[in-house]
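Ticket #140: bound-state structure for cobalt (II) ion.
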Amino acid sequence: MSVLPPGEIDHVAIAVHDLDAACERYVDLLGARIGLREEIAEQGVEVVFLHLPGETKIELVAPLDDTGALARFLEKNGEGMHHICMRVGNIEQALEGVIEAEVPNIDAAPRIGAGGARIAFLHPRALGGVLLEIKEVASD
Ligand code: CO
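RESOLUTION: The complex was predicted; output attached.
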C-alpha cells in the first residue's frame, strides 16, 4: 500500500512574477478560463486558478513581496513549475500516514489554502525535488 491513497491531480502550480501577464499567456495560448483569484497573506502569495476542460486546473502563484519562500524560489529558479497538488479524501488521515512513514513534510497539520481548502505540503525531498501539495476534496 502506498503512503498516500492514489488520487487525482487537483492542479499544477506555476511560479510567476506577474500574475496579469501570466494569465494573459495562458488565456491566449491555451484558452484557459480565469477563475478564483486570491491573496493568501500568511503565505505571502497571490494565486489565480485557470480552468481548462474537464477538471484540469493550473494555479499561477506570485509573491506579494520579495521576502517570502516563493520570492526566494523565483530568485533561485526563475519562473516555472512550483508544485503539484494531489487530492485526498481525508487530510488528517493522509498526514498521519505521511508522519508514520517518516516522509519529510513541511506541514504536520493542515493549513487553509486558496478557496478555504484544507491543504498541506510535503517536502520536495519526498518526491525527488518536486514540492507536493495535498488538498482535501470531499468525494461525492
Ligand atoms: Co497549489
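RESOLUTION NOTES: Strands lie at 9-15, 33-40, 45-51, 57-63, 80-88, 111-112, 118-122, 131-136.
TICKET STATUS: resolved
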